[in-house]
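Lab notebook, bench 4. We co-purified these components, and the gel suggests they stay together. Before we commit to crystallization screens, I want a quick structural picture of the whole thing.
Request: model the full complex, all chains together.
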Amino acid sequence: MYSIKQLQEIVNKQVEELVLPETPIELYEPIKYLMAIGGKRMRPVLTLMGCNLFTDNIEAAKSPALGLEVFHNFTLMHDDIMDNAPIRRGKETVHEKWNSNVAILSGDVMLVKAYELMMQTPDAFLRPVLNIFNKTAAEVCEGQQIDMNFEQLKTVSVDEYLNMIALKTAVLLGACLQTGALLGNASNEDAEHLYQLGKNLGIAFQLQDDILDVYGEPEKFGKQVGGDIIANKKTFLLIKTLELADSETLISLERWLNTDVFISEQKVKAVTDIYNQLNVKALAEAQMQQYVNLALNHLNEVRTGQERKQPLIDFANQLLVREQ
Amino acid sequence: MYSIKQLQEIVNKQVEELVLPETPIELYEPIKYLMAIGGKRMRPVLTLMGCNLFTDNIEAAKSPALGLEVFHNFTLMHDDIMDNAPIRRGKETVHEKWNSNVAILSGDVMLVKAYELMMQTPDAFLRPVLNIFNKTAAEVCEGQQIDMNFEQLKTVSVDEYLNMIALKTAVLLGACLQTGALLGNASNEDAEHLYQLGKNLGIAFQLQDDILDVYGEPEKFGKQVGGDIIANKKTFLLIKTLELADSETLISLERWLNTDVFISEQKVKAVTDIYNQLNVKALAEAQMQQYVNLALNHLNEVRTGQERKQPLIDFANQLLVREQ
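Here is the predicted assembly.
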């Protein structure tokens, strides 16, 4: 059995050894650039963990694990164009460093490379692995579209929000675990439990992100605290607040949402005060815990020894206590 | 055996029956829009012809044929953003009718749907069919990048140009015939000959396009005559002219290439006069005929009866005599 650290080292090696053509450089250099600037490599590690849950021979999962990381980075490259984001992981985004056309086309070829890597799998697994990948890839695009649509809407329900983050973020984590499990010769039933584990964990993880954006310690969180508030981003906290606020609080909140001229610190403080008043942090934490419990229930159902499940439990704990 | 007309009807029915989710509409509506506004459906017809060359049962090739058409339309959707093109087949392009973000994301999901359709193929063909598709998809992206790079270059050699059009346009036609052939139980050798047939025919087709843009009759050609000249597009005609012109002609030509202020008709006439002087139309036609001959040689090598080859010969003739 591998430790998380060992799996991370295997993944880093895989990423370093990713083979891409040399030319045209405008097409392949941005892929190398984006893949090299890091990230947590959560998706390939989860893929290997899904496999390692069932077997010590994780060879078959290595290329698909890398394929899932390449896919994730493809979505980042295109999302950053759409979101007009200048910075990713502290570096210039691809469309900033080169231009939008390069980011579009380089992203396209990245998706093709992801498929190539997913296909480096034994024949018996080829169709099931690609079926999961196709379904997930379409869902991630749907999630991004729904997220962009939210910007144009005045209100969004909690259910609509949870559906969006499931599609945009969580299903891919589910797909990673499920793919790894299948490649580790798990039964379809166990692989499905792992999908549900990853999906529910992913939703919990995104809810935590909403909380940390407001309540995280800047040094540990690594982003500007209050960024979501400044941008009027429809997070769980804002959606829940709009749902619960009395008319007086609502007027005060909407004044902040509708003004273009404000001092950031003042807006962040005022909106956070409203969140505190309505106790939405505790509601978000409760919602998050519900998803964590769902995830752990699915892990419980998986028919393999408890000791093999421990790394996954540790990984989930690492993910979910970034702040404390 | 099917006639070209019958295959075209089968393809049109396939396109009409393409199943896509209803929502998010911003994601799927543009795909339906672009697929509905037509085009020659050359790629799926070639796929079915490749199959029908070897068997009368073309069932297995139907979904992949549609997948190759969806892929082609995906490249159009993204290329139109990159080329800033307002019109496609007489209608607004997707990024014009909606916006660039919609065209990026809708295109992305279109590529995923193309893979889904390619996968609707018997297990025995799954890996070979997807290997051809992956290789071709990456090459088409490379061709588009090289084409964009050409705009920044002062000179391009004929070989570089032929390589670019091979990647951007021709390899996909080769892949269609090869995929169809494999799904018709052709030998790998015959399928390879069909790939070469399609690729060489595709290069010939593109060279003809360069000729027609200058010398075609507007009613039959369906585009503005001289569009390439107005845009300084590095076509075979311009590249060959820059290679052959004496210094005096070169000065005159470069005056037209370097001025932003001109009357279109005057520029088209002046540059066409230079082309005529150097006889580059005949050189382009000779080059084109070379590729047609190469294509027909490969068809000759295919081990199936002459009568089964006739529709492909007819199709090639239809493609290559759009003007006369």
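Chain B has one domain: 4-320. Worth comparing against the SEC data before the next meeting. Chain B has 16 helices and two strands.
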